[in-house]
Specification:
five-stranded mixed β-sheet, efflux transmembrane transporter activity, Efflux transporter, RND family, MFP subunit, Beta-barrel_RND_2, RND_pump_MFP, YknX-like_C, about 30% helix, alpha+beta, conserved putative lor/sdh protein from methanococcus maripaludis s2 fold, six-stranded antiparallel beta barrel
């Protein structure tokens, strides 16, 4: 009997504890839901500042992002076949135009050339003897002509062997620095095999792509100021040496600006930079304040306010003009864009515009 009473008491206590825990959890859930609803109420309208899209008049020129490229760059290809017996360079080596980079085994060709020269000397002696016999009627003119033709064939063979031997010596086609070497001494070289790149960065060129309106504002020989984040306080000066006559698939025109690579502040091919084109004339463009941009300029988005709702929209930007960026597509004049408060926004949130 006592055991039954103990069991009943234990069950009652456990049931009470279970009920208390369930009540507490339910109460906490109600508080969390209430706090969530309160938060939603507080954030129904996000305070933001806006600007209205309009056309801006830009004075004096424009900036274009570009990339520094080698003034000259060539891939060195092999013309001969054989084992590499001599390799005179390594990555980072500077070579002068015409210098021997490597040599391929050419012993067999040299032996063939020596034999051809011996045969040539013998053939020339034979022709001399035949010509002496020609007057005595011992030989015919045809025999003399055939012998002379044989000499010409040997000479042609010699020229071919000399050419093949010269091809076993790979020479630098331009002066520059060796990069991307793919062979080692003792390796087998095949025809049309890439050996290395030679890159000349003693001078550089910046490649930039301009719109049709921009390309009409510049001319060949024009001086351009160049900047790079690597040397933030240094301005480089280059000259426009190429303006492409045909646009690419993105309707942009390639413009190349050539400059000397200073030894005190050396630049490397592949570095990014900015070219400042001073045109001396004004241009009217649809401009977006840079503070409105969400993300990077290459993958730019903005929040456009429509009927009190902020809608995230991708835009395509062009050149940067100080605090403004040219808009190529995605926005039109008169639209309202969020300029401050984007950090609290998500797509399709309600906003309250502040003055």
């Amino acid at each position: 009997m006592k055991n039954i009473i103990r069991i009943l008491i234990t069950l009652v206590v456990l049931g009470g504890l279970t009920a208390a825990v369930a009540w507490k959890l339910g109460d906490n859930k109600k508080k969390i839901e209430a706090d969530g609803k309160l938060t939603q109420v507080r954030t129904v309208e996000i305070p933001v500042k806006v600007t209205t899209m309009s056309t801006q008049t830009i004075q004096g020129g424009f900036e274009i992002n570009g990339t520094f490229q080698p003034y000259k760059q060539l891939a060195v290809m092999s013309e001969a076949q054989g084992r590499i017996t001599q390799l005179n360079v390594k990555d980072g080596s500077f070579v002068s135009e015409g210098a021997v980079i490597l040599a391929v085994d050419n012993d067999l060709l040299k032996n063939q050339l020596d034999l051809a020269r011996i045969n040539l000397k013998k053939a020339e002696n034979d022709v001399t003897r035949l010509k002496n016999l020609l007057g005595d009627g011992g030989v015919t003119q045809q025999q003399v002509d055939d012998a002379e033709n044989g000499i010409e064939n040997i000479k042609a063979n010699i020229r071919g062997l000399e050419k093949q031997i010269s091809m076993t010596y790979v020479r630098a086609p331009i002066s520059g620095t060796v990069s991307g070497k793919t062979v080692e001494k003792g390796a087998f070289l095949a025809p049309a095999m890439k050996i290395m790149d030679i890159i000349d960065i003693r001078r550089l060129k910046m490649a930039a792509y301009l719109t049709d309106d921009e390309v009409l504002q510049i001319k060949k020989g024009q001086r351009v100021e160049l900047r790079t984040d690597v040397y933030p306080n240094k301005a480089f000066v280059g000259v426009v040496n190429l303006i492409d006559v045909k646009a690419d698939n993105a309707q942009r025109f390639l413009v190349e600006v050539e400059l000397a690579n200073p030894s005190a502040t050396p630049l490397k091919a592949g570095m990014d930079g900015v070219a400042e084109f001073n045109t001396g004339r004004s241009a009217s463009i649809l401009a977006l304040p840079r503070e409105c941009i969400v993300g990077s300029a290459r993958d730019a988005k903005v929040f456009v306010v429509e009927n009190g709702v902020a809608k995230l929209r991708p835009v395509q930007l062009g050149n940067i003009y100080g605090d403004f960026a040219a808009v190529l597509s995605g926005l039109k004049a008169g639209e309202t864009v969020v300029s401050s408060g984007q950090i609290n926004l998500e797509d399709n949130m309600k906003v309250k515009v502040e003055e």
